[in-house]
Amino acid sequence: MKIFITGITGFVGNRLASVLIERGYEIGGLARNISSYDRPSIEEQLSGVNLFYGDVTDYHSIEKALSRFQPDVIVHLASQTSVAYSFDHPYEVINVNFMGTVYTAEAARATVKGLKSFIWSGSVEEYGNQKDFPIKEDAPLRAASPYGVAKIAAENYLKLLHDAYNFPVVIFRNANSYGRKYNYYFVVEHTIVQMLRRENQIRMGDPRPIRDFVYIDDLINGYVRAIESDSDKIYGQPMNLGTRKGVSVEELVNMIGEITGYKGEIKWYYYPPRPCEIWKIIVDNSKAKELLGWTPQYDLRSGLEKTVKWWSNVIK
Q1: Could you give the 3-state DSSP secondary structure of residue 125?
Q2: What is the distance between the alpha carbons of residues 54 and 75, in angstroms, rounded to a whole number?
């Protein structure tokens, strides 16, 4: 089976490609020309991948890559992933996350023959602030950021393609993932790196928001199950990939402190509050369990321990 991954140089895409190569699949990927000063190049990380250089905001580069590779499955992961960033750069985020999805899906419809599935990476940020927990997929979508708006728009477009043309889209709404190896600008890795460096003061934002954190290996397992599924029931409807458990940022930081043995000060409210803060996100994962047989295998502590171990070696 031939699988094409957009965002193959990113956190999830890189890890997914590695797992799929081990399973014997032929992998193609769309990559931008990015700096590799702080990480191995994609060619060094994933030998044997058919790389096509382009950008999801350039329809012709996607069309050309898909036409040449002719994948059986497309996994569309390319995205601008920082919610905070989206408030200051809404045009860029909407262009990448919404129009990039439209271009990729339409290029697939125009050029790929016999496409088995188009797997898209949505986000639980689409839910915004809710009252009932854990959040089910039929909850109203209440975007609380330009990022959320773009993800909802992209999902709606993909649903339209499914309803109008039977486009084989698989829609995931991912919980907050962690386990990054090269990027420490997200809350879990940001906290771990500061604590392992034994900084006297750990700078954090608001301690109160509650989030559902899913470890990268569990997230990847969900995508692999969708790729290998033979069921038509997975198409055209969203599935949450989360743990059904929530933890506040303060509880998360304290747990990382226990694992790392950090004894310094936590400086809360160092960063300005996020506009339209979402105070609680905990998602129901029963649909993914029913349709894909997927359940997370890592609890938060075990996933954090693996992440801390990786960064401990890097910092040493």
Answers
A1: helix
A2: 16
Mapping DSSP to helix (H, G, I), strand (E, B) and coil, where does residue 122 land? Answer: strand
Read off the tokens for 72: 């059986």
Beta-carbon count within 10 A of 124 CB: 25
DSSP state of 208: -
CATH class name, domain 2-175+215-241: alpha beta
DSSP designation for 280:
B
Determine contact, residues 145/124, Cβ cutoff 8 Å. no
- pTM score, whole prediction: 0.95
Q: At what angle do helices 11-22 and 216-228 cross, to 10 degrees?
A: 60
* 315 in Cβ contact with 196 (< 8 Å): yes
Alpha helices by DSSP H, 166-242: 187-196, 216-228
Q: What's the confidence (pLDDT) of residue 38?
A: 44
Backbone angles phi, psi at 113, to 5 degrees: -95, 130
Q: Is 256 helix (H, G, I), strand (E, B) or coil?
A: helix
Q: Token digits for 264?
A: 């310094």
Q: What is the DSSP string of 41-102?
A: -HHHHSTT-EEEE--TT-HHHHHHHHHHH--SEEEE------HHHHHH-HHHHHIIIIIHHH
pLDDT at residue 41 in the model: 56
Give domain limits for the chain. 2-175+215-241
How long is the chain?
316
Mean pLDDT per 10-residue segment, the chain (316 residues):
96 96 97 57 71 96 98 98 96 98 98 98 98 98 98 98 98 98 92 96 96 98 98 97 98 98 96 94 98 98 98 92
pLDDT at 35: 42
Q: Please say whether the dihedral angle defined by the alpha carbons of residues 51, 94, 234 and 160, taken in this order, is positive or negative.
A: negative
Which region, left, alpha or beta, applies to residue 15 given φ > 0 means left and ψ of -120 to 50 means alpha?
alpha
